[in-house]
Amino acid sequence: MPAGTRPRRRRAGLKSHQASFSWGRHRVLVAALLVFGFGLSGVSGVVAYFLPAISAALNITGQHPQGNSKSPAASPSVTAAPAPNQPFNVLLLGSDNDAKFRYGVLAQTMILVRINPQTKSVVMFSIPRDLWVPIGNGGASAKIDAAYSDGGAAEAISTVENNFGVSINYWVWIGLGGLVQLVNDLHDVNIVAQMPILDDEYPYDLTGNNPYLQARIAILPGPQRVGGVAALEYVRSRHGDVLSDIARSQKQQQLLLDIKASAGDETVADVPSIASSLGDSVKTDMSISQVGSLLTLARAFSDGNVHQVVMTGEPYFASGYVGSQSVLLPHFAAIDALIAQYFPTS
Amino acid sequence: MRRLLPLVAVVALMAVFGFAVYSVLGTLKSTRHEFSKPTLTQALIDLSGTVVVVQNGDIYSLTNLKFTQIKAPAMDWVQVAPAPDGDILAVAYSSSYSNVYLLNPQGQIVRQLLSESSTQYFGNHWAYYPRVSPSGSTLFYVSDWLCQSASCGGVYNVDFQIQAVPFANPAVSPVVWSEAGLYFQGGDVQPIPLANGGIIYAKYAIDGATGATYAQLVYVSSPYANPVALTLPAQDCAEPALSPNGTEIAMVCTNNSLQSTTLQVASWNGTTLGTPVQISAGPLPASPTWSPNGKSVLYLNTLLTDKSSPFQLWWIPRATSPKPGAPQQVTEDLNFTATSPPIWTA
C-alpha cells in the first residue's frame, strides 16, 4: 500500500462525514438551533435586567391581608375582584414604619380611592386618622388608625367597610421610606406648596436609632421641585398648620397626583430600579398583572377627572375627647351622604 | 478541536447578544428629568444684561448666553435678591435655620447680615426673602420669631412675619412689620419694599369654612398698620414683583388649584391694583422678576408640555400693553430653584 493511502481514505472519510452533516441537509436544524440559542440568550438578558423587578414584584404584590396580631376580627375581608372595566375601590394605607410602635404601626394615612375605568375618573376620599369608630367587625371603638395596628390590612379593610359601607377590592400599603424612595426614583416631583410650612416638632425618624427625635423644618410656598425627603416633609408636617391632620390629608392627595404626573412617562426599563428600591416599603394584594393594568389605566386619567374629597370638620365630625384622647366624633348621616355621592354603587 | 471552534464562537456570540440586550434595556430608562450643570449649557435666548439664578445650592450668573458659577463659599444657597452696588443678597440654608449674607458679584462674602443659629433648639430661626428698600437703608425679610403673647402660647406659633433692620447695621433688634396673627396658617412672606416707605407682601390664611388655604397680596404703609388686601382669596395670588418704575406688579396665582399656577400682571397706582392680565397660563410659572427696562418679565416654569419637568428660565418679551407676548423658553435641561426669583440687572 503506497504511503499516504490511509490518509487519503481518512480525508475521504472525513469528506463523507462532512457531507453527511452538510449545511444543505441540516440547514433548517442549524438555523433553528441558532435562533433558539440567540433567543434564549436574549431572553436571559431580559430576565437578568428585570430580575430585581420580578423579585420585588413577587414580594410586594399578592399579599394576604392578614394583620399584625391574631385578632379574631382580622379575617381576610377583601371583596372579590371587580368585573373587567367596572369601577373598583382601593384602600390606600400609609404609616410610620419606625420603632415607636412596639406592637404594630398605625395607619396614619387612609385614603379610599375609587377608580372608574369607563369614565376614566378617580375619587380620592381621605379618612381622618383620629375618627372614633368601632374597629373591625363590630369591635370596641378606637381611633380608626388603630385598626391597621391591631389587625393589619384585613382589620383596616373591615373597619372601613363596616363604618363607611364601601366594598374594598384591593389594598395598598406604603411606608415612609417607600414614599421617599419612590419620589427619588422619579427624579423628584413638582408641587405647589399651599402655604409656608414651619414645623418645630417634625419627627426626625427616618435615620438614626431614636424615633422620638424632632427637627425644625421649613418649606416655602408656591411651585417648586422637591426630592423624596422634602416631599415627605410636605405631606407629613402638621404642627405648624391649624388644620393639622386635615391639611395633611389634602397634601397627601395632592402629592399622589404630583407623583402620577411625574411617573406618567417612565418607561418599562425604569421598573427594575424603582421596584427594587421600594423593597419592603410597599405591599398590596393586587397581582402583578393587576398592578400593570392599574398603571396603564392611571396614564389615561387627566387631573380634571380626579375628585379630591377631604372632610374638613362639621358637618362630618366634631372634635372631642374620649377619656384623655383627643378624637374626632363622626356624624355618619353627613358622611353617608358624601359616600353615596362619590361611591354610588357601594 | 477545530470543529468545536465555530460552536464556541457561536456560544460566545450568544452571550454577547444576551449582554447587549441587557445593556440596551438599561439605555431605555427615562432621562427626561435629568438635568445639567448650567455651566455646561448655553441659553437659548440672549437676554441683555446679567441674570443671577440658583440651582442645587449653587449660584450662577447668565451673561451673553453663557452661565458662570458664582464662587460663593460652600453652603446650601437657596435664594438670591438684588442688593445695592451690584451685590447679591443670598440665603444659606442649614438644618433648622437659615442665614442671610451679602455677597459681592464674584461670590465673596461682604458681610453676614442675619445670624439665625442658636445653641438652643428653639432659638434657631428661619430668615428668607431678603429685600433692600429702594433707598438702600432698610433690609426687609421674613422670620419665624415666636409669638410672645399669652394668647398663642409661644412655642409652636412659628408663622412667618415680616421684619426690618437697618441695612448698614442689621444686628439691632428688628422692627416687626406684620405679626402673622392668624396662627398656624403660614403667615406673611415675600415683602416688596416700596418707594413710599410701605411694603407689599403675600399673606397666607385658611378659610375656616372650607379648609382651603389661600394667599392674598396686601399693602401696609407702616409697621403694624392695617393691611389692605389687593387681591381676592379666590385668586390665591403670591410672589409679587414690582416693575422698575413702580407702576405694575407681576404675581403668581393658583385660583385655588393645587396642581397649576398662572402668571398675571396688574397695574399698581400706589394704593390699588388694576384688573390682572394673565400672561402665562401654566403649567407652573413661579418667581417672576422684571427686566431692567420694565417691559418684559423673566420667570421660572416647567416645560409647557410636561408639568413634572424641572424648572427652566422663561421670558415674556412684552409683559404689558397692548398685548402680552408669547412665553419663550430661555434655558433647557436645567433645574433652577423655583422659590428663588432671578435677579436681572442691566
Outline the low-pLDDT stretches of chain A.
1-14, 68-76
CA radius of gyration of chain B is 24 Å
Largest sheet: number of strands, sense, barrel closure of chain B: 4 strands, antiparallel
β-strand number of chain B: 24
Query: Helix coverage percent of residues of chain A?
Result: 40-55%
Mean pLDDT of chain A: 79
- How does CATH name the architecture of the largest domain in chain B? Beta Barrel
Q: Which descriptor suits the 3D outline of chain B?
A: globular
Estimate nothing, just give the exact number of structural domains of chain B: 2
Keywords:
heterodimer, A: 346 residues, alpha+beta, Aminopeptidase, six-stranded mixed β-sheet, 9 helices, 23% strand, globular, disordered N terminus, B: 346 residues, mainly beta, Lipocalin, Neuraminidase, 2 domains, four-stranded antiparallel β-sheet
Structure write-up:
- The complex is a heterodimer of chains A (346) and B (346).
- Chain A has 346 residues and is an alpha+beta fold.
- Chain A is 41% helix and 23% strand.
- Chain A has 9 helices and 14 strands.
- Chain A has a 6-stranded mixed β-sheet, with helices on both faces. Chain A has a two-stranded antiparallel sheet with strand order 4-5.
- With 346 residues, chain B is mainly β.
- Chain B folds into 2 domains: 72-229, Lipocalin; 232-346, Neuraminidase, CATH 2.120.10.
- Chain B has 1 helix and 24 strands.
- A 4-stranded antiparallel β-sheet of chain B has the order 3-2-1-24, with no helix packed on it.
- Chain B is globular.
- The model of chain B has no long low-confidence stretch (mean pLDDT 90).
- The interface between A and B is large, with 60 and 74 residues.
Short description:
The complex is a heterodimer of chains A (346) and B (346). Chain A is 41% helix and 23% strand. Chain A is built from nine helices and 14 strands.
